[in-house]
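Researcher: We plan to redesign the surface later, but first we want a full-length starting point. Tokens attached.
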């Protein structure tokens, strides 16, 4: 008999799942790890290529240690509190109605208890670790901050305690308070849930178990000790308090010093006493003493900490506030001037004249010759139209003002970099290969004289074209790193080839362009992507698989990204606030981007607090995408401590320690000992292009609105406070006028210097728009290697008399508009398809008074549009000049002879209107052989001279309109010769129209 074979065992489904799940988990971990590496390891490669991996390592290590410490402390404390409360629960909870109602909650929680005991502390620990890691700068400054050498006026402690130590102590105390409070909350909840703490019950039954009593007493004592520490630290932090009410000064006032500070000390001692009561309760089991202590503390906090200071303020200070607060206001004034580097402002009374005398500018000849006519915020379209060359090149909306030595003379210059703009490519050209490997860089700089103009009012370029030609000399023109560079480019081709990058256009090559291969074997501009793993990481980082599969990514390739100069400096110097203006300079044969870096603090005792964003907002930051404000943070200390440069060719970054007296920078040099170079490494050529930064000047002028008043009593009254005038060229919003760079000689100075200037008017909604002050800073650092000019950073403040009648910028602009001659000619210029734009309104202290200069540009409102400088407005007191050149306008204002020549003297010839003569008599019936002494016919009303004048006006306006149309057509065709002829006809027509209108007026 044959036995049946045993049944074959069925496969166990669980085994297959057992293999599948670990496999999926492993794959998931690998994917997550690769994605994390795509962000983390590429950052390491970026920093390492730049030579600043120490910064990344230090920051990440500090953040990591703080995260671990914060996580361990919070998770450990809360976890221990939960665990101890559960393990020490009573075995048999008292049978009461209260406990019976809690049974259902215990039963619901029990299946999840282990998970809660683990997940709860872990989640809180993650939040705590993240919060702690954000304080890495506070901790590093605490560790490395040193003595400042100055003491505060109240406690006599070195300012280093307030700048470095106090923020660190406050962070530790606040963090420990959060840990202790959360531990106490979780302890109370657990003890209550499991019967260790009862709320109800008979009077003879203990409300807590011994374990719960000890646990909660220790936590209560810890909370009270930390409260005591917090109260004690408040005594020091109060020195940076914002005064309530009028908000005119910061720092501890009379009430703070005489009432609040003592109350904080009393409350600190009281908290320690109550903490001792909690410790006693842990031993004795009597909760009455700590309960009474907590109640008394609450009463003391209300009475001693709140009511008493209010009484002192109301009945002792307010009736005599000026006398009571005088010493503390003086502390605020002195501290503010020190914290913002305003202690050495040279103040001079300036008796400004409003009468324009012939020859008044003779002693200001150097300033007059340097007056800048080119407005860098307006002429960018002119740069684009005349120097763009190709549509994929571009210039920023706001250009930069610098100074260069040309033929042995320092000249103010408007300069811009011709950057690459991929948006300028047509759709047929846009693909990954072109965007990433062909169009990789811009080319060259363009520079124009600031104080004159070219033909027809165009900028007079002294450097431009492709290849670049002019007075700049030889330099590396390729711009791989700039403010509008592509997100990333891959450069470098096989060695021995011409490369596939578009270098610059050239009609002689037959292909329309010259190719270029970035020399990656000799120059490092970005991380190398010479292996499959690097390609994979960057493909994931940028979400672009082409990086992984393209044949143009070779072993010789480098990838360039994070190319904006400001962004590069911000990453390698995370402790700096960066100026909103980034400007280019040609230095030692290379194009360098220059960025100013600031160290700041909000812990300087008694110094005024300012919002950096509000203080640096002006009409330029509101209208230009390339000029930014500082970060929206509150500070009461600032220094321009670092000058940074970014090489436009290879992206290398250099940080130079500029302010060697800054204690905050000294602390950061201890943190990052190799990232900063000494000032001695700055070359003479680079030094000649470093300048006083705009944003620091904006913050300082904002403070000088109030802190030019250094007497406490006068400061308290506030009757002499100033304001920065609104920009009269911007009518859409009320924003301050920006400061302007220009070369000028301040009254009393020995020579003209490259300076940054601003003006002041009285504050108040109903105040007159007249000048009350004029501020200029010597912005020129000199040209000696490693040595700053002695006069650099000198702030000079001209204070005008309280009854000043010198027009402010708004009033000056209004006077221009109201002048009949100016208004008529501007209306004529604006006829037809033309747009009149007024440039920056400059103010100069020359001729014993204040001179206003404003260029006037004309451009078409449609089609090919770019502004051309056509006229210049000038005013001195009530006198107004309006001419084709600044030189001519100055002569008009100063009685026919200003006494000095402007930079555009003699440039009006090509567009000068022919002279016109007014007729001396009326029309005759027939032409006479010789002019008669009197008219042969008496003109009738409404005819004769009047009719001729009206006819002449109509004809002149028609000619002007035709000339404008023909000029715009010539521009559209690129026919500059025809455009010039049209401008000549336009000038002649305007002159004829003005003459005819004058005859009508007569």
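Model: Full-length starting sequence:
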């Amino acid at each position: 008999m044959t036995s049946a074979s045993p049944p074959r065992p069925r496969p166990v489904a669980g085994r297959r799942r057992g293999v599948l799940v670990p496999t999926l988990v492993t794959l998931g971990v690998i994917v997550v790890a690769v994605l994390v590496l795509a962000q983390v390891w590429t950052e390491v490669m970026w920093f390492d290529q730049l030579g600043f991996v120490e910064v990344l390592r230090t920051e990440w290590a500090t953040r990591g240690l703080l995260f671990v410490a914060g996580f361990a402390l919070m998770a450990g404390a809360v976890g221990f509190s939960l665990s101890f409360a559960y393990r020490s629960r009573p075995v048999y909870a008292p049978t009461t109605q209260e406990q019976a109602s809690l049974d259902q909650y215990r039963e619901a929680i029990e299946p999840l208890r282990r998970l809660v005991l683990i997940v709860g502390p872990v989640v809180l620990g993650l939040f705590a670790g993240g919060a702690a890691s954000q304080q890495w700068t506070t901790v590093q400054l605490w560790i490395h901050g040193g003595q400042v050498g100055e003491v505060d006026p109240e406690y006599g402690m070195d300012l280093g305690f307030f700048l470095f130590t106090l923020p660190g102590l406050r962070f530790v105390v606040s963090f420990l308070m959060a840990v202790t409070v959360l531990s106490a909350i979780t302890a109370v909840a657990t003890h209550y849930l499991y019967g260790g703490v009862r709320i109800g019950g008979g009077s003879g039954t203990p409300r807590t178990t011994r374990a719960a009593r000890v646990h909660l007493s220790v936590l209560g004592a810890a909370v009270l000790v930390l409260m005591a520490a917090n109260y004690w630290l408040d005594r020091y932090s109060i020195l940076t308090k914002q005064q309530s009410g009028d908000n005119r000064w910061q720092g501890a006032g009379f009430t703070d010093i005489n009432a609040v500070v003592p109350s904080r000390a009393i409350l600190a001692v009281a908290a320690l006493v109550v903490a001792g009561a909690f410790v006693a309760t842990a031993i004795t089991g009597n909760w009455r003493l700590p309960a009474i202590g907590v109640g008394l503390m609450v009463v003391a906090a209300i009475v001693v900490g709140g009511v008493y200071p209010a009484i002192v303020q109301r009945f002792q200070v307010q009736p005599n506030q000026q006398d009571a607060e005088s010493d503390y206001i003086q502390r605020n004034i002195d501290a503010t001037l020190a914290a913002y580097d305003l202690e050495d402002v040279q103040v001079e009374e300036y008796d400004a004249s409003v009468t324009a005398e012939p020859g008044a500018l003779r002693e200001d000849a150097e300033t007059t010759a340097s007056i800048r006519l080119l407005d860098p915020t307006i002429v960018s379209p002119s740069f684009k139209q005349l120097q763009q060359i190709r549509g994929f090149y571009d210039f920023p909306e706001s250009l930069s003002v610098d100074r260069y030595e040309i033929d042995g003379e320092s000249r103010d210059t408007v300069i811009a970099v011709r950057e690459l703009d991929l948006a300028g490519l047509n759709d047929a050209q846009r693909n990954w290969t072109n965007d990433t490997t062909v169009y990789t860089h811009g080319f060259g700089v363009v520079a124009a004289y600031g104080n004159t103009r070219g033909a027809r009012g165009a900028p007079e370029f002294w450097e431009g074209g492709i290849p670049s030609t002019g007075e700049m000399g030889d330099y590396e023109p390729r711009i791989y790193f700039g403010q509008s560079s592509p997100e990333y480019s891959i450069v470098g081709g096989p060695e021995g080839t011409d490369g596939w990058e578009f270098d610059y256009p050239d009609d002689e090559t037959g292909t329309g362009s010259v190719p270029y291969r970035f020399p990656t074997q000799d120059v490092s501009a970005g991380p190398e992507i010479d292996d499959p793993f690097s390609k994979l990481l960057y493909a994931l980082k940028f979400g672009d698989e082409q990086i992984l599969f393209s044949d143009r990514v070779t072993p010789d390739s480098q990838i360039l990204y994070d190319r904006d100069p400001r962004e590069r400096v911000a990453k390698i110097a995370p402790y700096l606030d960066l100026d909103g203006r980034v400007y280019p300079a040609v230095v030692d044969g290379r194009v360098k981007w220059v960025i100013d870096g600031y160290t700041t603090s909000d812990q300087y005792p008694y110094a005024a607090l300012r919002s950096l964003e509000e203080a640096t907002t002006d009409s330029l930051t509101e209208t230009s995408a390339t000029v930014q404000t500082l970060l929206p943070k509150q500070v009461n200390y600032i220094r321009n401590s670092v000058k940074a440069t970014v090489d436009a060719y290879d992206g290398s970054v250099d940080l130079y320690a500029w302010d060697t007296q800054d204690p905050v920078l000294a602390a950061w040099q201890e943190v990052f000992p190799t990232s900063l170079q000494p000032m001695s490494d700055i070359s003479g050529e680079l030094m000649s292009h470093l300048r006083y930064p705009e944003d620091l000047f904006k913050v300082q002028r904002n403070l000088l609105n109030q802190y030019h008043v250094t007497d406490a009593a006068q400061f308290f009254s506030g009757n002499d406070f100033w304001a920065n005038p609104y920009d009269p060229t911007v009518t859409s919003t009320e924003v301050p006028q920006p400061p302007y760079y220009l070369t000028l000689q301040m009254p009393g100075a020995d020579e003209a210097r490259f300076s940054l200037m601003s003006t002041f008017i009285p504050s108040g909604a109903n105040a007159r728009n007249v000048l009350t002050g004029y501020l200029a800073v010597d912005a020129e650092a000199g040209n000696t290697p490693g040595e700053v000019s002695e006069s650099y950073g000198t702030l000079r403040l001209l204070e005008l008399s309280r009854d000043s009648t010198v027009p402010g910028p708004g009033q000056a602009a209004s006077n221009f508009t109201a002048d009949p001659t100016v208004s008529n000619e501007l209306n004529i210029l604006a006829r037809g398809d033309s747009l009149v734009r007024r440039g920056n309104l400059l103010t100069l202290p020359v001729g014993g008074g204040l001179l206003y200069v404003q260029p006037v540009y004309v451009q078409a409102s449609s089609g090919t549009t770019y502004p051309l400088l056509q006229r210049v407005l000038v005013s001195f007191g009530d006198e107004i000049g309006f001419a084709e050149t600044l030189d001519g306008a100055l002569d008009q204002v100063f009685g026919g002879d200003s006494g000095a020549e402007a930079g555009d003297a003699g440039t009006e010839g090509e567009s000068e209107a022919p002279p016109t003569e007014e007729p001396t008599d009326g029309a005759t019936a027939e032409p006479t052989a010789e002019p008669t002494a009197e008219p042969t016919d008496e003109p009738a009303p409404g005819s004769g001279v009047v009719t001729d004048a009206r006819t002449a006006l109509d004809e002149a306006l028609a000619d002007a309109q035709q000339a404008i149309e023909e000029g715009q057509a010539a521009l559209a065709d690129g026919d500059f010769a025809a455009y010039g002829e049209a401008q000549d006809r336009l000038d002649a027509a305007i002159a004829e129209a003005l003459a005819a209108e004058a005859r009508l007026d007569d």
